[in-house]
Design a protein that fits this description.
The complex is a heterodimer of chains A (118) and B (143). Chain A has 118 residues and is α/β, with parallel strands linked by helices. In chain A, 49% of the residues lie in helices and 19% in strands. Chain A contains four helices and five strands; from the N terminus they run E-E-H-E-H-E-H-E-H. In chain A, a hairpin with a 2-residue loop joins strand 1 and strand 2. In chain A, helix 1 packs parallel to helix 2. The relative contact order of chain A is 0.18. Chain B is of the alpha+beta class. Chain B is 36% helix and 33% strand. The chains are: A alpha/beta (118), B alpha+beta (143). Chain B: This is ATP-binding protein.
Chain lengths: 118, 143
Amino acid sequence: MRIPILKLNQYLLISIQIELDDQTALQFQEDLLEKIHEEGSKGVVIDLTSVDMIDSFIAKVLGDVVDMSNLMGARVVLTGIRPAVAITLIDMGIKLEGVSTALDLEQGLASLQQELEG
Amino acid sequence: MDIQSCVEVKNEWGIVAARQAGRDLSRQIGFGSVDQARITTAISELARNIYLYAKRGEIRLELVEKPSKLGIIKGIRVIAKDDGPGIQDIRQVMVDGFTTSSGLGAGLPGVKRLMDEFTIDSEIGVGTTITATKWAQVRGHVR
């Protein structure tokens, strides 16, 4: 299973709409970095509206994706984290420090635009 | 007690299948969306531990009930069982941040916080059984 990565001007948009197994999560990590490299993208929005569970492994992969993309010079914003997912992450003691987040796709794109275009 | 479902975990797909079974059963029992997420996440952590450390095992889900002042309370009991190497030092694995794999070390202490009851039974060379229960409509419990 591959997660589709859409290009919108200088940004990449991802909406995760499937049950994330470990292999798919790692494949996504690789695909996204390749795509950033190919397109020279400056910003990425990963929308998690449809994701109803993030365990410690998925959280680690997401945190790594953000760090790796930053290393390549692309800013990543995670959007649409559901209330139940946010509560569970904090219960678990997972903080995702240094990760930019926004309420929804629209606000995520706006915050990237503000940061990158001034 | 009739067993509601039992998922064999021997690869990554087993982790996903266990999660889905947990999500379905917790929804059927009538847990709210936050508790559904807690239960599903706890199952995911337990199933991944089986796959990582014991290679194979099973996640059994049971519907449980207990009487209370308000009537019968329903709950879901998750039993993660394997015949793996066992846990050397249980106290150590229950410390936040401890990990022997590539995770965040939030695994077992995290599961304990997500659920209402939690016990580990482990014997070196024999295997590990972790039992975790979540009750519906229990308020004000200490996490």
